[in-house]
Amino acid sequence: MFFPANQNDVISVATLNRMARDLLESGLPPMWIGGEISNLTLAASGHGYFSLKDSNAQIRCVMFRNKLSQLDFRLSEGMQVELRGTVTLYEARGDYQINVDTLRAAGLGRLYEAFARLKAKLEAEGLFDNQRKKTLPANPRRVGIITSPAAAALRDVVTTLRRRMPAIELILYPTQVQGSTAPAQIVAAINAANLRAEVDVLIVCRGGGSIEDLWAFNDEAVARAIAASKLPLLSGVGHETDFTIADFVADRRAPTPTAAAEMVSPSREALQQGLDLTRRQLERALSRLLTDKTQQLDYLGRRLQHPGERLQRQQTRLTQYRQQLQQRLQDMLRQRQWRLDALRYKLAQGKPALPRLQQALQQRQQQLQGAVHRQLTQQQLALGRLEATLLAMNPEAVLARGYAIVQNEAGKVIHSPAELHEGEAIRLQLADGSARARVELEHGTQSQLPF
Questions:
Q1: Is the dihedral of CA 166, 167, 171, 177 positive or negative?
Q2: CA distances (Å), 69 to each of 115, 128, 211, in order?
Q3: Is the pLDDT reported for residue 70 higher than 70?
Q4: What is the pLDDT of residues 145-201, one digit of tens each?
Q5: For residue 433, what is the enclosing H or E element?
Q6: 149, part of any domain
Q7: Mean pLDDT of 48-57
Q8: Is the pLDDT of residue 142 over 90?
Q9: CA distance linking residue 97 with residue 60, whole number of Å
Q10: Which residues lie below 8 Å from residue 417, measured CB to CB, with a gap of 6+?
Q11: Could you tell me which residue ranges the Exonuclease VII large subunit C-terminal domain spans (predicted)?
């Protein structure tokens, strides 16, 4: 660390503040400090600035957003707290301050720690999951209220329900809402309501108070009874800034008892307005329907005629059809008569001369006979030529002149002595049969047959 060598050495204000900060941070370890919050400012950045004071002194404090967001409650002016932080100095202004790491309500640190432990435990078990939470009925007939008969919250709930929907029946399940015996009574009331099954929804409620006052609703047995309830259950404990374990486990959480009553009951005024709107829509729909039906009736009335008039019109149309049919028949008969006369005329003009036609027929017969005779003679001559050619080419005729066909054992025709071998068996095809022989080779390069 830098220190001036003598009194004539001059340092800057920034250097002095840095030295002071280093001394504070190195000389004072993080510690717990208790006091009252004053001059609280929650900046838009999410950081919190306040002073911590007691009856004799005060010190500036800053709690940055990442630390402040971890608190389970909201800081408020005049709150007694215990905080743990590092003593330091803000060099830009030379302000001596504490950078706060952890903060809890004074004297309630163990309660907040117990609250946080139970909250983490039940959340890990899934008791806060939205999937397991039930839907509140839209129009309940009976509402059960679990609270103290002397609680102001009961009056708020009853007043709100009577104002919004007087027809809803209310059933009170009286219980203590504060003190050491309150958790067991709350659990018993929830179980009794589920056993009797006489209401459509339950409201567990009480007014605001300190953490000690509301501690019965941070009890594990109460939380599990709420989670096990088969009836939809709404928590309306404390004020808007108060949060209890019951709020997280309940099917719905209301910021106040009055808000809880509003959430479980439909508004009579809203229902009346909806009914009036439906009535007006129905009236308009009926008016349109009546108008449409009236117009349709008028249209049908104009189309409706007296049966006598309709019969007269049909009789007139039938007379017209009869006249048209008679006219068409007469026209058809005239056309057929004209065609018959024309055919008679053509028949008279085209009457054939039979002697001339018979003579022409005889001539055609004679010509046809001559042509057939000539054609037959030509075909016979051609057949004779083909027969002579076939006989000349017939191999049997060749064999009859003393020739023979030589074949080896495989049936192949032998054309040359070079194709024969010594002692080979051969077959001779003659004109009137066949014979077998064996080859003897003569001196020379050619084989001869033993004829």
A1: negative
A2: 17, 20, 19
A3: yes
A4: 999 999 889 999 999 999 988 889 999 999 999 988 999 999 999 999 999 999 999
A5: strand 433-438
A6: yes
A7: 90
A8: yes
A9: 5
A10: 446, 447, 448
A11: 127-437
Annotate 86-113 with b (16+ C-beta within 10 A) or e (fewer): ebbbeeeeeeebbbbeebbbeebeebbe
Q: Which two tokens stand for residue 138?
A: 């839209």
Looking at residue 135, what DSSP letter applies?
P
Here the CATH number for the domain that contains residue 56 is 2.40.50.140
Residue 92 sits in the same domain as residue 122: no
323 assigned to some structural domain: no
235/242 Cα distance (integer angstroms): 12
Is residue 238's pLDDT more than 90? no
SS3 label, residue 350: coil
Per residue in 326-367, pLDDT (tens digit) is 888 888 888 888 888 888 888 777 666 677 778 888 888 888
> Is-contact 241 73, C-beta < 8 A?
yes
pLDDT of residue 24: 85
pTM: 0.44
- What are the helix (H) ranges across 350-421? 354-393, 395-400
Closest CA to 86 of 33, 34, 50, 141: 33
In a domain, 255, yes or no: yes
User: Helices 257-264 and 152-164, interaxial angle, to 10°?
Assistant: 30
The DSSP code sequence of 47-81 is -EEEEEE-SS-EEEEEE-HHHHTT-SS---TT-EE
Amino acid at 291: T
Q: Please check whether residues 66 and 121 belong to one and the same domain.
A: no
Residue 364 belongs to a domain: no
And the tokens for 78?
Answer: 């005049």
Q: Do 97 and 208 reside in the same domain of the chain?
A: no
* Residue 273, amino acid: Q
442-447: average pLDDT: 53
CATH number, position 230 = 3.40.50.960
Structural domain containing residue 220: 116-128+139-266
d(CA 177, CA 201): 19
Tokens representing 41? 């400012």
For the chain, give me the number of helices (H) and strands (E)? 12, 15
**243: which 2 tokens?**
């949060």
Name the H helices within 128-181.
152-164
Q: Which residue bears the tokens 């803000």?
A: 90
Distance (Å, whole) CA 95 – CA 59: 9
Pairing type for strands 31-42 and 425-430 reads unpaired
Beta strands in 115-176 (DSSP E): 142-147, 169-174
Closest to 140 (Cα-Cα) out of 238, 22, 264, 249? 264
Name the domain count of the chain: 4
Residues 6+ apart with CB under 8 A from 120: none
